[in-house]
Design a protein that fits this description.
- The chain is α/β, with parallel strands linked by helices and 356 residues long.
- Strands 7-6-5-4-3-2-1-8-9-10 form a ten-stranded mixed beta sheet.
- The two termini are 22 Å apart.
């Protein structure tokens, strides 16, 4: 109980200070794949034009240099960021401002030449998605050959000592029984960290039953992660973690390094493809947009708005209204509130309780 009280105090202080140190830039909504679980519903021929680099930099430059957190990281997301022909220029412009940068990629274009180009531009962090073994991954990504291309990117990134690299996997009903083999495969490749997440019912995944684990499968996945994290040092060179999706009750200290804390709007912001200012890109942009870089000063928006993120009392509704763990959960991750926001879409704690 003392640990929980200390974490609540830490979270309250972080919220009051709200130091921005992680900024997503949805630099394109073009994508070469057609993933079954895409929350952004991206296509190769997007209706959105890539945001010009100078527009993003103009917004970023409203952050006073003396007030910028250290370290500070800009993460390029999309769509597929490697579809931007100016990706090297983007990286160099960010590095010239003294900030780190990285990206989230599907790995299709991540070959040796691209690796050299990005490292020369100062890329420091990279996440590549791998969603199961070959058949499952290609099914998930909607394009044959996606697995082999992603695997090649993973090999290159895992061998790069200058890169803070991890692999992320969306576990669903189709690849659920492949996680043990996938663990062994990634470990052989030298991947330093494997981050696992599950699906919330938004975007293309909203009405796809194959995307969503049963409660029993979800708990089994937690047991898998916990078991891998308990292996002794030499047998556990690859760190396995569960994502920041939501509060996990008895699994909190077993599947994560630190207790659950949704940092959206507290330490994390995003600039979306149309200029809207929000938090994580997967959060409902219509319900929780806080401004727009084309009409507002980005830094002023960060300092003065984001009320729904910093005071979560509004989430005490629906099944959260009388929940005994609400003070630790605060209504789960903000990306679990979509549409009317009448109630949370996913309750991870509830899944664990229901499966017992």
């Amino acid at each position: 109980m003392i640990g929980r009280l200390l974490h609540r105090a830490f979270r309250a202080n972080e919220t009051a200070v709200h130091e921005l140190n992680y900024l997503f830039w949805e630099c394109t909504t073009r994508c070469n794949l057609h993933c079954r679980h895409c929350g952004s519903d991206c296509f190769a021929a997007s209706r959105d034009v890539d945001m010009p680099l100078e527009d993003f930099l103009r917004a970023f430059d409203t952050i006073p240099a003396q007030e910028r957190a250290q370290p500070f990281t800009v993460v390029l997301t999309g769509g597929e960021p490697l579809l931007r022909p100016d990706i090297g220029e983007v990286g160099r412009a960010l590095r010239s401002r003294g900030v780190g940068w990285g990206m989230v990629s599907n790995g299709w274009f991540y070959d040796a030449a691209m690796h050299r180009k990005l490292m020369a531009a100062g890329m420091g962090t990279l996440t590549i998605s791998l969603d199961g073994l070959e058949a499952s991954h290609d099914w998930m990504r909607g394009r044959a050959g996606s697995y082999s291309r992603a695997l090649e990117g993973i090999r290159l990134a895992a061998a790069e000592p200058r890169l803070n690299f991890d692999v992320v996997t969306c576990v669903n009903r189709r690849n659920f029984r492949e996680v043990e083999v996938l663990y062994d495969r990634l470990q052989v490749l030298g991947v330093p960290q494997w981050r696992i997440f599950t699906i919330i019912p938004i975007g293309r995944a909203a009405d796809d039953p194959e995307m969503h684990l049963t409660d029993a499968e979800f708990v089994s996945l937690m047991d898998f992660i916990a078991a891998k994290r308990e292996l002794p040092g030499p047998a556990r060179p690859m760190k396995v973690t569960f994502s920041c999706e939501g509060y996990l009750g008895p699994y909190e200290n077993k599947v994560r390094d630190v207790p659950y804390f949704c940092h959206a709007g507290i330490n994390i912001a995003s600039v979306l493809i149309d200029g809207r200012i929000c938090a994580c890109p997967n959060i409902d942009r219509d319900a929780f947009c806080q401004g727009n870089i084309y009409t507002d000063d980005f830094w002023q928006v960060w300092q003065e708005r984001f009320g729904p993120f910093r005071d979560r009392s509004w989430t005490r509704r629906g099944p959260c209204a009388h929940c005994k763990v609400w003070r630790d959960c605060l209504g789960n991750g903000m990306h679990n509130w979509h549409g009317s926001c009448e109630q949370v879409l996913n309750c991870h704690y509830g899944k664990i309780i229901n499966a017992r």
